[in-house]
Amino acid sequence: MTRKQKRLAVIGGALGFLGLATALTFYALGQKASYFYMPADLQQATVAPGQRIRLGGLVEEGTIVRGQGTEVAFSVTDTEKSVKVVFNGILPDLFREKQGVITEGSFRQDGTFVADSVLAKHDETYMPKEVADSLKAKGVWQETTQ
Amino acid sequence: MLFWVVAALLTLAACMAVLLPLVRGREAGDSTGSHDLEVYRDQLAEVDRDAARGLIAAAEAEQARAEIGRRILRLGNQPTSATTSNGTAQRAAGMAAVLAIPLIAWGLYAFLGSPALPSQPLQDRLAKNPADSSVDELVARAEAHLAANPKDGRGWDVLAPIYLRIGRAGDAVIAYRNTISINGTTADRESGLGEAIAMAAGGMISADAEAAFRRALAAEPGNAKAQFYLASALAQEGKLTEAAAAWQAMLGTLPADSPWRSPIGRAIAEAERRASLAAGNAPADGPSQDQIDAAAEMSPQDRAAMIETMVAQLDERLRANPRDAEGWRRLVRSHQVLGNADAARDALQRGVAALGADSEEAKGLQAFAASLGLAKTE
Amino acid sequence: MIVETGHFALVLAFALALVQSTVPLIGARTGNERMMAVGGPAAITGFALIALSFAALTMAYAQSDFSVLNVWENSHSLKPMLFKITGTWGNHEGSMLLWVLILTFFGALVASFGANLPASLRANVLAVQGWIGAAFMLFLLATSNPFARLTPAPFEGQDLNPILQDIGLAIHPPMLYLGYVGFSICFSFAVAALIDGRIDAAWARWVRPWTLAAWVFLTGGIAMGSYWAYYELGWGGFWFWDPVENASFMPWLAGTALLHSALVMEKRSALKIWTVLLAILTFSLSLLGTFLVRSGVLTSVHAFATDPSRGIFILAILTVFIGGSLALFALRASSLTAGGIFQPISREGALVLNNLFLTTAAATVLIGTLYPLFIEAVSGDKISVGAPFFNLTFGLLMIPLLALVPFGPMLAWKRGDLLGAAQRLMFAFGGALLAVLVVLFFVDGASVFAALGAGLAFWLILGALTDLVLKAGIPQVKPSVAFSRLIGLPRSVFGTALAHLGLGLTVLGIVGVVSLEAERIVTMRPGETLDIAGYSLRFEGTQPFKGPNYTEDQGRFVLSGSGGQVLGEIMSAKRFYPVRQMPTTEAGIKTLGLSQLYISLGDATADGGIVVRVWWKPMVTLIWLGGLMMMIAGTISLMDRRLRVGAPAKRAKPSVDKPAASVS
Q1: ipTM for the complex?
Q2: So what's the pLDDT on residue C564?
Q3: C560-to-C570, C594, C595 alpha-carbon distances in Å
Q4: Is B268 helix (H, G, I), strand (E, B) or coil?
Q5: Topology, domain B289-371
Q6: Which of C647, C651, C570, C575 is nearest to C615 (CA)?
Q7: CA nearest to A126 within chain C
Q8: Are A93 and C234 in contact (CB < 8 Å)?
Q9: Where are the domains of chain B?
Q10: pTM higher than 0.80, yes or no?
Q11: Where does the pLDDT of residue C398 fall: very low under 50, low under 70, confident under 90, or very high at 90 and above?
């Protein structure tokens, strides 16, 4: 092989490799990316039971129910709709009523969302009640606007 | 002043950093070639070392030497193009650069900085001679002390009335509660607590405050502050006659030089004024909160009549002079307070229309109505 | 006065940076030595000014000067002194000032030790540093001035976010920034080469130690950040594929690639254009990382600063620097001459393969991190790309790369002998195979994945050791001779071997935790015990405790082994910071050998118990010990004499054996 052919072969090999990697990446994106929904979004979207999604919103006031052992149930709301979530485990430190959370998991057949992880926002500044309330009133929650 | 000297010195240093290289004569520069040659020589030495250590085979080393040798040959003799002489244009550019430093720095700092503001380390502020300190500073000092020694009853005892005087009623409530729990109850502390609770609630004497005043009276039956506020509580409930009677009774027992005499006098006058208003002397300018309160004391028929008169007067005035945002607020509130939501909404609509739907005033009015619990109208 | 002096010094440094970014450049273009010489003193003075500015801010923090807005927002008089000082860079403004401080520090280093660089290269490098510095100083002054004042000054601050009040976070950002910003030197060298249209031989010699130094710091920063998240966030995870983490990981991947390609360039003068491109990309990814963290454009579990105007400003900096340098690259790259040739199977070939895998891996991480932004812009859907995506793509790319690592150092330059290398690695391969079998048959609950992972880790570790053993000549020469040869090996050989060894340790730790971790979530009442991984844990109860600026409920646990012997006490706590009204979890961690037992407390239940989450994390410490090993390896390599640049012959001592200056 001449030097030029060799170089072409190397470049061809590298491109083939990159193509393969790109294909893998986009296949994985299609398979592994989980969509983020607010409770009101779920009306338009059809989410099959068992499909992994992220559900975000505010923890609705007065809905936190401690079950047996480590089980906790609460509702996530965006002030229009709310979804009942059950979670087994330790809630994050910042978890409290009217606090923004993201839960990840899937729906059970009966429409209850079973979360296997709950994230509360680690914010640099404590979100004052008024701000949270006004955001709530507008139906916009800080997490989704960022 | 010191700051300006420091700033000037810093500026001078920065200018010199640019100026000195520009004016300093320098020996003729090295050609780039000599730098490269140095690196290649170093590489040759390294190949020798590696070969000596047996890290690379002799043949490999020979090959590497040949390659480096070729690079050295390729280097050749590149001419040095560096100059040390300054052309006029370049000299001008250099001087412009030196001048740019103070111009940009001082200009920008004049815009951004606060040169007159001294540094204020907390320790220094707290250690300052108390006589020179403002009340805020004294309070901060006391707070710092109490944060470190929260069980210091005397500190809370001193701080509580100060909080009250500078209007920090919420903190005063906490301070009074602390001193009561540490030092025990006294009439002064309990009446102070009651006053703080009332102040925190915007002057309303709540059941909590009332209980505190009653505890004060139990500790010291003649406590003037407690008596005064309990009478005020009666007035707030609308029992004006009883309130006035209680205050009158206080005047009888208080010493002649008591500081409470003048507030009591004013309170009695106010109670009498309200009582006479309640008797039906309608005011000229819409119902005030007091008048509505007073109206609550009248017979239902009288009340209805009085309210209608007042609201009608206000309404009329607003028709004549519609650009009165405050008047519209009063009208909306009157209807709303009296439980006439439809009329309130109607007033709101007319008010918004009169003020101009997009005006700031109309928005303010709507927000005000919303704060009264009146749904926004479309 | 101190505060305003700091403010003025910052403004002055900005003015000086503007001069530094223009005058030397004009000098290099026109061949005016005097103008070129301005770069050095300007860079050093600029560093001194920023250092003064940073010291003033630190002083304001230490003295709780609440007349400084930034101090009031992020400090509190009751905070321990250590956290008052580290709080200086625990917030957006202060951390950006630290960023600039490090940038100017590196510029000053180039100015001080760059006497042996060709004058025009040095002038161009310092000018490019000046651009970056001026851009970020302007960013500070325009959108996030740390010296903004507050009058009248309040008497108490708002306190620092409690999760940032931690010694790990005191060191983590400076390390990370030393890494990020260290790559700015490589970037400046690359752009300077493009401006000049030629690459000097000294170029690669300079770029490599800088890359190495930056890489060492970045490795340390990432490892420390990972450990901080592990113990402070209370989830027990060591890596979350969080955008903020990815932001630091992408430059690390690209920087690792740069480290290897710079080696080829230095040794063989090959891959010049690619190395220049990689140097640009690495720093671009560092800038992108800064942008992602500072703008809050991506939802993150620890997004600290979120302010759109800052985001737009950094985006503008990003566009100008990345776009500009890539455009310059497109324009000028063809003028750089191609270098030495090599066979596909050779050390160079292996390093090219390494670069291919690493840059592709960096690209997948980039795509995964930015894809949610892209989708939201296009369709409005909000998606999250999390661990499953990264594990699949990144994992698949890493496996072949890791498998190939031991071959690299075995191959000769220019033309390698694959068969010979394979033969020399037989021992390492046998050891790895043994590890697979042992894990498969003797470790309870181990999957095939765990066995293969362990095999891969041992392959790396043994391969690295084999390299050292062979270079010492062990099979051929007597042990005493071999030992002296081992001692005498160039430090860079040790560096390579130890870095690959550290990589193996990290892989082993990850495999151990991922495949053998045990987790229990239970409600415990005082006196109850829990069995996990052969240990038993008794809950003693909780008791309140008051810290300087927090209160906490401490849960005490007594750990005993299978035979009942007491191994120690573990304390886990739920903390509450009243100023910020924020609770945090303080995990209780007990290190047993290389493994750890990790306890975090949940909420109290109505019947007097408390929810307790306990993890058994086998070999977890290896993840960070491996990182530490890589740092040590990088440092050793930095001390290698070959990386010390020889002074030009005109110097007083023409000897090449005693270099007049060193870069380390």
Answers
A1: 0.81
A2: 80
A3: 11, 17, 15
A4: helix
A5: 1.25.40
A6: C570
A7: C580
A8: yes
A9: 289-371
A10: no
A11: very high
